[in-house]
Amino acid sequence: MKNKYLLFSAYSSFLAAVLHLGCIIFGAPWYRFFGAGERMATMAEAGELEPTLTTFVIVSALSTWGVFALSGAGVIRRLPFLKTVIFMVALVFIGRGVAFPFIMPLFPENSLTFWIVSSLICLTIGLCYALGGWQLHKQQANL
Question: What are the extents of the domains in the chain?
Answer without folding.
Answer: 4-142
